[in-house]
Write a structure and sequence with these properties.
By secondary structure, the chain is mainly beta. It has one domain. The chain has 1 helix and 9 strands, in the order E-E-E-E-E-E-H-E-E-E. The strands form 3 sheets. Strands 1-6-5-2 form a 4-stranded antiparallel beta sheet, with no helix packed on it. The protein is elongated, with a radius of gyration of 18 Å. The termini are far apart.
């Protein structure tokens, strides 16, 4: 009898998506309704590890924004990491530096375990008052350029 309850394919949604992609024209099977025009934004955990350290829970992963744009010229796709200050520091160090809701990095000093909690900007994305905001319930929003999906450092 297997110790693993679910198929290993069940874990695929919880693997890091490290690659940032730009597709100028996405192949479409069938037809896109001509009335369908606009951009669909989605956000979720994209990076679920640094070096050999993995987050204990997928919700701790760094945010990644995905967008699909429907126009008369076709369907276009782009994704980008939300470049929070914490993301950039961890990227440079190539290890986890901050506590998150479900993860405490191995090398984090004992006294810091209860203080700084990382804002992964991975929970929701809203377009409000001509601004695209990447959100997380426990922290401030991050301002995103809706065209190229770059994070403004505030």
């Amino acid at each position: 009898m297997s110790d693993f309850v679910f198929s290993k394919n069940h874990l695929n949604p919880f693997q890091s998506q490290l690659e940032e992609l730009d597709s100028k024209l996405v192949p479409v099977e069938g037809e896109v309704p001509s009335e369908l025009k606009g951009t669909f934004f989605r956000i979720g955990p994209g990076r679920l590890h640094r070096g050999d350290e993995y987050y204990n829970h997928p919700f701790d992963g760094d945010g990644m924004i995905f967008k699909v744009t429907f126009s008369d010229n076709g369907v276009f796709y782009r994704n980008r990491h939300v470049l929070t200050k914490e993301y950039l520091r961890e990227e440079e160090a190539q290890r986890l530096l901050y506590r998150s809701v479900g993860t405490i990095p191995r090398k984090l000093k004992l006294r810091m375990r209860f203080f700084i909690i990382k804002n992964p900007a991975n929970t929701n994305i809203v377009y409000h008052s001509h601004k695209l905001l990447a959100l997380w319930e426990g922290g401030m929003p991050h301002l995103i350029n809706p065209i190229v999906l770059l994070t403004f450092q505030i």
